[in-house]
Amino acid sequence: MFYREAGQFKTTYIRDQELFPVKQDRWGIFVIIGFSFIIVPLIANDYWLQAILIPFLIYSLSALGLNLLTGYAGQLSLGTGGFMAVGAYACYKLVTIFPETNVIILILISGFFSAGIGIIFGIPSLRIKGFYLAVATLAAQFFFEWLFGRVKWFYNYNDSGAIEVPVRNFFDIAVTGPTATTQARYMVVLCIVTFLALVAVNIVRGKIGRAWMAIRDMDIAAELIGIRPLNTKLIAFAVSSYYTGVAGALFVFTYLGSAEIEVFDINMSFEILFMVIIGGLGSISGAFLGAAFIVLIPILITNLPRILGIPINAATVEHFNFMILGALIVLFLIFEPHGLAKIWSIVREKLRAWPFPY
Amino acid sequence: MEILTTIFIQPFFDMAGDPILFLQVIWEGFVTGILYSLIAFGFVLIFKASGVFNFAQGIMVVFAALTLVGLHENGIPAYIALPITILVMYVLAFSVERLVLRPLVNQPDIILFMATIGLTFFLIGFGEFIFGGEPKIMITEELLLPYDSITFFDDMLILQEIDIAASIIAALALIFLALFLGKTKIGVALRAVADDHQAALSVGISLNTIWVVVWFISGIIALITGIMWGAKSDVSFALSIIAFKALPVLILGGFTSVRGAIVGGLIIGIGEKIGEFYWGDLVGGSIEGWLAYMIALVFLFFRPQGLFGEKIIERV
User: Fold this and answer.
1) Domain B23-302's class?
2) pLDDT tens, B251-283?
3) ipTM above 0.95, yes or no
4) By the CB < 8 Å criterion, does A224 face chain B?
5) Is the pTM of this model over 0.80?
6) How far is CA A203 from the centre of its chain?
């Protein structure tokens, strides 16, 4: 009754090609963005920001990057953790080398290093496909785990082997390092994620995104209609790695504060892949929904027994966490292979017709 | 110039200078390679029969070993624990077919692959929940496996008896499976399914039964691998790292080739040990983790379908 596009006429081409053509969607997005920019920093406490919202946003960005590659361009990748590590370590080295430069610019630049690496590891995708490629991307994962753990230059020869984030200001407000407030870090993450998400929405509906989808659906057919597989696949790898690289830099700089390479191990890659699958392959909003799901589930599993008053020790919770996550993934694949985004679109269809059945 | 010498010439002098040590390195690589081959073999069986990229194969290895050891820890003697473990693997195969594969039939490959990752997580949680997460010792003695070492050339070349036993058992298992696939009715049915699902269905082969059978066989292979690998190190879920070692074996040998799994396993096992031993120190050591992938990637550039894989023909 309320969610319905009847009566919204487009009189110009510009209006017709808007990002969110339905008025209610547009307002919904404005409300969500406004809420997260203005209301959330005012009302949320440190626990919410640090434990839930900041990781959620960063994981969303990473899942978004993987979704561009796997969901839109159809190239399965298991090396997300490795690309995130490249972003994080590139940013760390940049901050060390250029201490005067604004850290937010450096975070955005570090993504380009990751993009370059992504192109290199994307080259095999021209020869090999599907699962063979997935295994090949694992090479990136294991290689970078080894590289950043072994070569001391990457962590400035310090004894702990961890990268410690220094305090950096953005117009006199500390945004990284131990003295930065959670609110400040949240705002940095939110700005970057919002910006990059809007860019992603535009990429996938433009020429590049369409080329990706053509390659995904059938690469030989796409080649025959004049899409260059070389360029298209490598652009997909570059853009995707850029997103994951920035996410990796944010992960260390605004979320963890200090990190070792173990943070970006193979489980990270899988977690991001789960977000993409549960959220919905080939959907921008799916990346956010999937990230929310995967971030919230462990918190729920940890806290639920306590709320219900069932005594349960930490190790068991950890085991249950694995079991429930595994079972949920299988269940999702069986009942809704297109993920949460598909469920949302079903709900939307229902809303449009409500209160009538059709 | 000097650096080129240390990379390209010195290691070969080292090899020639101490041939017994070289032999030892190759032997170590050979033994690891056999275990990789076994994992890859279990994988290829499932991939051929159902087109599922079974990521859980590595976890099945750990799960089988953990069940065996865990049962023994709870006071069940080894000769009873072993059949029970085999039974558990059958139940696992049956439940996987009924609860995961059957509802997902006709879905795209990536969905099935993801389902096996979900299965992996489930098995990790389940195994640790039942038997506890701490590392366990494999019951080598109780299973009547030898654990001494034999030495040659005045103690220069040391061979572990367990390794020799592992090689023999692996070889026997592979011969047995080859006979099983070639000579028995169910083996022929299995190959028929691997060739063409629909044709197999049309001559009255039950796909569901075949799937249970291949997952069960893979489970048995996982158990053998788990015992052998567990005897060399502890039994814990850290072992599942060998699953990642087996993946390059697969891309090297080809997903659909049993021969490829065996040859690929040996190439990767030996190549990785030699690389680590003679070149590893030059770049900081511990290159085993990714060297196998690099070897496999180099091969892939020349043969995208793997060494023995079927030629990929694409049609629009």
Assistant:
1) mainly alpha
2) 888 777 778 888 888 888 888 888 888 877 776
3) no
4) yes
5) yes
6) 15
